[in-house]
Write a structure and sequence with these properties.
1 helix, mainly beta, 8 strands
Length: 122
């Protein structure tokens, strides 16, 4: 079995994932097409995309375009924020990592690690 850890302190040496690794992403750092969604979740639709890193390298990512938070019930917005905050703190090889967040007007775009094999429930 594996143990899941919460990295509450970004200064912990050797941590692969920490709160400090979450940052705002600029629109120019991601590209994706809404033509072929990968799936749909409680808070929005997920697309495959590419994130350009600050060093010029790139990686495939999953782009979760969150539904307009202005039209979502406040409980759904709270649930989404709780999920994002929890995901930012979890560190485990079997948990998808958040790469960054982009505010797009009333919408939020969450950029996550792309898992080629898809969801574990399939």
């Amino acid at each position: 079995t594996y143990q899941t850890s919460l990295d509450m302190d970004s200064s912990i040496a050797g941590g692969l994932y920490s709160i400090s690794s979450i940052y705002q992403i600029g629109e120019d750092q991601i590209e994706y097409s809404t033509e072929y969604p990968l799936g749909e979740g409680n808070f929005g639709v997920v697309y495959k995309g590419v994130r350009t890193k600050t060093d010029g390298d790139w990686e495939q990512v999953a782009i979760k375009k969150v539904k307009d938070t202005d039209t979502m019930p406040s409980s759904a917005v709270d649930d989404m924020e709780r999920e994002v905050n929890l995901m930012k703190k979890l560190s485990h090889e079997n948990i998808v990592k958040i790469r960054g967040v982009l505010q797009d007007g009333p919408n939020v775009i969450i950029v996550m690690e792309y898992i080629r094999e898809g969801s574990l429930d399939r």
